[in-house]
Design goal:
Blueprint: H1 3-18, H2 28-40, H3 59-79, H4 83-91
C-alpha cells in the first residue's frame, strides 16, 4: 500500500463516518459530532486558559487546549469541509453539558 493510498483511505473513512451519502455535507449525526468537537476542542475561541489561582495565563493548559484545536483541524481537513460549514459550526453557541 502506497502513502497516497493510505491518505486516500483514511480520508474516505472519515467521510464515511461523518458525512452524508453525497459526501458534500455532514450527516445529521456527523454534524452533531462535529459541533460537539468544535465546542470541546476550542474551535469557537482562542485556546488561552487563565489559571483560577494566579489569574494569569496557564501555559500548560494553553498548550493542551491548542492540542485539542489541532485534532479538530485535522478532522476538518480530512473531511474537506467548505468554509461555510466551519464558520456555521463556530457560530453555534457553546454550552457546558
Amino acid at each position: 500500500m502506497t502513502a497516497v493510498t493510505k491518505v486516500r483511505d483514511r480520508r474516505l473513512a472519515w467521510k464515511r463516518a461523518l458525512m452524508d451519502e453525497t459526501g458534500a455535507k455532514p450527516s445529521p449525526h456527523g454534524e452533531l459530532i462535529l459541533q460537539d468537537l468544535n465546542r470541546k476542542c476550542f474551535g469557537h475561541k482562542a485556546a488561552m486558559i487563565y489559571s483560577a489561582t494566579s489569574g494569569q495565563f496557564d501555559p500548560i493548559a494553553c498548550a493542551f487546549a491548542q492540542g485539542k484545536q489541532e485534532v479538530l483541524r485535522y478532522i476538518l481537513e480530512n473531511l474537506y469541509l467548505d468554509e461555510r460549514f466551519i464558520i456555521n459550526a463556530r457560530e453555534v453557541i457553546p454550552h457546558d453539558d
